[in-house]
Amino acid sequence: MTTRLIRTLLGSLTLAASGAYTFVYLYRWEWNRSLMSAAIFIAAEVAVMGSLLSHRLKVIGERLDAPAPPGRLDRIHEAAPPPRARFAWLARPERMNVFVPVLMGAGVLLSGIAWLVERVARVTVGPVAERGLSAQLDGLGLPPRGFLAAEPDPLDLLRGPVRGPS
Amino acid sequence: MKALGAVVLVVVGVIGVDTLADLTQSRPDALADDSTTVIAFDVGTRGYNGTDLDAARALWAVCAASVSGAATGPTAGGDGYAVSISPAVGTTGSKRLVGCLEDGTLDRVQGHVESMTSG
């Protein structure tokens, strides 16, 4: 306690003196001294703030580490609501005869729907997919009359010199 | 109550900043051509590489720029050194000059103004 009091007094005195002398030196046009006094003020401010924060953290830590008063935890436990059973119908094994048929029925229903979707897809997707594949492979096919007997193209005049019949 | 405190704080702050600005603001002084200021100052040194006269000359060389006017010196006399400035320096010029001489302007040299007379 005494150490903290001395620390607070020293910090306050340093803050007050350095802050006051910063302005006194400014008034006297002594810039170097004013700058040094301001630097001391900032250093003292950081030290005082660090000390205050450290003390506050220590108080908070002690408050968190303190054990609860006797009897308080017991009263909290007594006042707590009874635990609720989320799936009460699963808690009793003798009632599983309801759960299993429902689960099996849902599985059969979902399997039937999946089978139906698969059948419809098989019937409809085949022709469309084959036509699309044929259109994509069309660019890779050979010319209808081969490479040597290509059809005359009017744009050939733009691609090279005119050749006479040989 | 909080609003009143805030108003008082703002008023005190504005007045304080304005006063400080007035006290530290440099203004042109009215100079009389036939006037002279004689400033006597002393120097203290610690580990300075030279004599006290060298220190006084170096300090004056730095601080002479803070005032206008032609200066002669510093010359040794009495317990320190004297500089004569013509025309005389004004109020703000005196503040600037004394502040420069007594500030930590030069390393290892500390000036102290003994007197400043204008006439």
Specify the biggest β-sheet of chain B: 4 strands, antiparallel
Over the alpha carbons, how many angstroms does the gyration radius of chain A reach? 46 Å
Series of secondary-structure elements of chain B, N-terminal to C-terminal: HEHEEHE
Helix proportion of chain B: 25-40%
What is the C-level CATH assignment of the domain at 37-118 in chain B?
A: Alpha Beta
H and E order of chain A: HHHHHH
Mean pLDDT value of chain A: 84
Beta-strand residue percentage of chain B: 25-35%
* CATH fold call of the domain at 37-118 in chain B: Alpha-Beta Plaits
Helical segment count of chain A: 6
Total DSSP E strands of chain A: 0
**Which structural class should the secondary elements of chain B be placed in?**
alpha+beta
Mean pLDDT of chain B: 87
Describe this structure in words.
The complex is a heterodimer of chains A (166) and B (119). With 166 residues, chain A is mostly helical. Helix content of chain A is 72%, strand content 0%. In chain A, helix 1 runs antiparallel to helix 2. The longest helix of chain A has 42 residues. Chain B is an alpha+beta fold and 119 residues long. Chain B has a domain of 82 residues: Alpha-Beta Plaits, CATH 3.30.70. Chain B has a 4-stranded antiparallel sheet. The longest helix of chain B is centred in the N-terminal third of the chain and has 23 residues. Chain B is elongated and about 65 Å long. The mean pLDDT of chain B is 87. Chains A and B meet through helix 1 and helix 2 of A and helix 1 and helix 3 of B.
Record the SSE blueprint.
The complex is a heterodimer of chains A (166) and B (119).
Chain A: H1 2-27, H2 31-65, H3 72-79, H4 88-91, H5 96-137, H6 156-159
Helix pairs in contact in A: 1-2
Chain B: H1 2-24, E1 37-45, H2 52-63, E2 70-77, E3 80-86, H3 91-102, E4 109-118
Short précis:
The complex is a heterodimer of chains A (166) and B (119). Chain A is mainly α and 166 residues long. Chain A is 72% helix and 0% strand.
